[in-house]
């Protein structure tokens, strides 16, 4: 392996660690895990009136941040347990979206999704997304 290849590899690793820091990966994973531990039994998401289960957008690739903002805003309006944690996540997602901090997640300012899920499915989507950046 020559010196230029080694420097390229080191530079790539540095960029990935910077991306992970800018994206607040560890913080988001910690908060999301806390919410998952606290959330009650997962009820099915049905978009009918009178259903106590929240239906939240499960984002398409590149639209995660917009959907995470939309979903956490919905949780704030309807899910008052852990309000401080959800507010923190919401602010972090808004900042990342507005400043294009997590490039792989913020290609679109609009939330695009094909399916909706309950709170647990939504939180698991956040967790999987940020764990992938953390690798």
Write the layout of secondary structure elements.
Layout: H1 3-22, H2 25-38, E1 56-59, H3 64-78, H4 83-98, E2 113-117, H5 119-134
Antiparallel strand pairs: 1-2
GO molecular function, one term: cytokine activity
Organism: Charadrius vociferus
Protein name: Interleukin-9
Question: What features would you highlight for this structure?
Answer:
Growth Hormone, Chain: A; 60% helix; 135 residues; 5 helices
Structure, explained:
The protein has 135 residues and is mostly helical. It has one domain: Growth Hormone, Chain: A. The protein is built from five helices and two strands; from the N terminus they run ααβααβα. Strands 1-2 form a two-stranded antiparallel ribbon. The longest helix has 20 residues, at 3-22. The chain is elongated and about 60 Å long. It starts with a helix and ends with a helix.
Brief overview:
The chain has five helices and two strands.
Please identify the structural class as seen in this structure. Answer: mainly alpha
The pLDDT mean sits at 80
Please provide the ordered H/E string of secondary-structure elements.
Answer: HHEHHEH
> How many strands, what sense, and barrel or not for the largest sheet?
2 strands, antiparallel
Give the terminus-to-terminus CA distance: 24 Å
Radius of gyration: 17 Å
CATH architecture: Up-down Bundle
Helix share, percent: 55-70%
The beta-strand count equals 2
Number of helices: 5
Strand content: 5-15%
The rough form would be described as elongated
Number of domains: 1
- In the CATH scheme, the class would be Mainly Alpha
Q: In CATH terms, what is the fold-level topology?
A: Growth Hormone, Chain: A
User: How is the largest sheet built, in terms of strand order?
Assistant: 1-2
């Amino acid at each position: 392996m020559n010196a230029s290849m080694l420097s390229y590899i080191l530079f790539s690793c540095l960029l990935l660690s910077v991306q992970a820091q800018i994206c607040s990966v560890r913080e988001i994973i910690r908060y999301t895990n806390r919410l998952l531990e606290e959330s009650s039994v997962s009820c099915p998401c049905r978009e009918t009136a009178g259903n106590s289960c929240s239906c939240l957008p499960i984002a398409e690739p590149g639209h995660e941040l917009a959907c995470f903002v939309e979903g956490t805003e919905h949780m704030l309006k309807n899910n008052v347990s852990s309000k401080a944690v959800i507010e923190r996540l919401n602010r972090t997602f808004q900042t990342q979206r507005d400043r294009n901090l997590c490039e792989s997640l913020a290609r679109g300012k609009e939330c695009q999704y094909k399916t909706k899920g309950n709170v647990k499915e939504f939180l698991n989507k956040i967790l999987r997304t940020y764990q992938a950046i953390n690798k």
